[in-house]
Design brief:
Number of domains: 1
CATH superfamily: Nucleoside Triphosphate Pyrophosphohydrolase
Largest sheet: 4 strands, mixed
CATH topology: Nucleoside Triphosphate Pyrophosphohydrolase
Distance between the termini: 42 Å
Number of strands: 7
Shape: globular
Helix content: 10-25%
Number of helices: 2
Length: 149
């Protein structure tokens, strides 16, 4: 039997046994190129830091389904167009996460901060700080796409 067409399932734990938390992240981009950052609310790890909206996948949930749910819960918008973009892993002191970044270029509804968080439309270089460490690679990917275009 050939294994060429089989999809490799990513590990669920780190080599030292810690659980990997799967996270769907939406990089909402307007037609003018501005992108949305949200500030983590009080009571969460890294409160006050800026990040792209999203959240943990629930059992059996796809990245797109999780992102659709999270954007509705956090910002009261309904996802229309979502394209998988990059996946990275990051080791935070409180959790080891696998972040599935998706570009979101179309949604329905008007953004509302349902969790009391601030949000801001940004361009590079960003004007809000501090930013979550795992968010930083996204800005580099954006720069690379801009220089290629």
């Amino acid at each position: 039997m050939s294994t060429d067409n089989l999809t490799q399932v990513p590990p669920t734990h780190t080599p030292d046994g810690r659980k990997i938390t799967e996270v769907a992240v939406g990089v909402l981009v307007q037609p003018d190129g501005k992108f949305l950052l949200a500030q983590r609310p009080e009571g969460k790890p890294y409160a006050g830091y800026w990040e792209f909206p999203g959240g943990k996948l629930e059992a059996g949930e796809s990245v797109e389904a999780a992102l659709m749910r999270e954007l509705k819960e956090e910002l009261d918008v309904t996802l229309r167009t979502c394209v998988p973009w990059h996946t990275i892993e990051h080791d935070y002191p409180h959790a080891y996460v696998r972040l599935h970044f998706c570009k979101v270029t179309a949604w329905d509804g008007t953004l509302r901060a349902l969790e009391g968080q601030d949000f801001a439309w940004q361009t590079l270089p960003i004007s809000v700080h501090p930013v979550l460490p795992a968010t930083l690679p996204v800005f580099e990917w954006m720069r690379e796409e801009t220089t290629v275009s």
